[in-house]
């Protein structure tokens, strides 16, 4: 018997997919059922936030669609039919990022159930974290999560290394901020009013101050509580892949989501920092600084934070296409 996914599978999978992170919460995805397979497609009608000079805007789209694909895999596994995934299955249709077909039915593994359960809770936390150190066990689980998806996560520890990464991030941020289009785009994607996309000002983090080790994207203007500076030595992680092809970037997206969900499940907060990825010279300096072969795809700040709120998403009905 040929197994196919049906509409109910699609809807459950899409409800999970849309919770994925995306650059400025731009949600560059669409989903459909075609011949019993679920497809993750690029929504080419959506405005794409500008990225740094020399990095293709596709990078951000591929990461976001990869993360959405990971959520779908979890949702389908928890429904009892894990998916077989093909990335960019049709060379003549580059907007199809992934195609998910039904694999052999089986009960979901406990790890799949646990990660699926935390999807609605995961969100970026751009506030200062508490100084409590992340345990060795949690660090190990985060790096394992990246490896399980074919990526790597290099944790940056030690004052000198953390400060060096902070300097690289500031240097990239200065380069990006010189571009009026980039600044206008951040303002355009910052939402003061309720909206189904973009970054709500409440999620934006406090106004930057000169002593900050890392540059925040200025989405909001939350006043900083007195004495509530950012942690002096955050746990930083650089997520990377063996290469920088479209396949690597979609892989990075899946790995990013697995790392973030693993962290959420362990009670950790995280924020993403992509300025050092978006400026090619800085990305190369970052690669050399962490002494890894391959391509850095994202920088993460990980720690313990006060609980925040998930940000809005477009409705499932707004992102599903008729077959
Ligand atoms: C490719 C990519 C790059 C991102 N870069 C940054 C960044 O530089 N700074 C930041 O605060 N968040 C960054 N984010 C996080 C998004 O802003 C965030 O995922 C989105 O606003 C949705 O919010 P949520 O993560 O709380 O669900 C990035 C996310 C992706 C997928």
Automatic annotation (TrEMBL):
Gene3D superfamilies: NADH Oxidase (3.40.109.10). Residues 304-323 are annotated as: Disordered. InterPro entries: Nitroreductase-like, Nitroreductase/BluB. GO terms for molecular function: oxidoreductase activity. NCBIfam families: Rv3131_FMN_oxido. This is Nitroreductase. It comes from Phytohabitans rumicis.
């Amino acid at each position: 018997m040929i197994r196919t996914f049906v509409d109910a599978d699609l809807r459950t999978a899409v409800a999970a997919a849309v919770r994925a992170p995306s650059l400025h919460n731009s949600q560059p995805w669409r989903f459909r059922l075609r011949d019993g397979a679920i497809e993750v497609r690029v929504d080419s009608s959506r405005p794409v936030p500008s990225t740094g000079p020399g990095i293709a805007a596709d990078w951000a789209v591929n990461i976001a669609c990869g993360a959405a694909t990971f959520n779908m895999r979890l949702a389908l596994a928890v429904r009892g039919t894990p998916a077989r995934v093909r990335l960019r299955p049709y060379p003549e249709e580059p907007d199809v990022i992934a195609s998910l077909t039904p694999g052999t039915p089986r009960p979901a593994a406990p790890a799949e159930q646990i990660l699926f359960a935390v999807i609605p809770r995961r969100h970026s936390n751009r506030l200062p974290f508490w100084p409590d150190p992340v345990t060795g066990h949690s660090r190990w689980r985060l790096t394992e999560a990246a490896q399980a998806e074919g990526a790597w996560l290099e944790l940056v520890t030690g004052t000198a290394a953390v400060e060096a990464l902070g300097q690289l991030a500031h240097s990239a941020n200065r380069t990006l901020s010189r571009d009026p289009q980039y600044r206008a785009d951040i303002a355009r994607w910052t939402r003061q009013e309720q909206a189904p996309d973009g970054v709500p000002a409440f999620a934006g983090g406090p106004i930057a101050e000169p002593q900050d080790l890392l540059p925040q994207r200025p989405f909001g203007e939350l006043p900083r509580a007195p004495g509530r500076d950012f942690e002096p030595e955050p746990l930083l992680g650089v997520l990377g892949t063996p290469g920088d092809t479209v396949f690597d970037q979609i892989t990075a997206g899946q790995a990013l989501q697995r790392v973030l969900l693993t962290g959420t499940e362990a009670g950790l907060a995280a924020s993403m920092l992509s300025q050092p990825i978006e400026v090619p010279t800085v990305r190369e300096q970052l690669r050399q600084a962490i002494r890894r072969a391959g391509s850095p795809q994202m920088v993460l700040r990980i720690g313990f934070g006060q609980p925040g709120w998930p940000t809005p998403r477009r409705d499932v009905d707004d992102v599903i296409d008729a077959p």
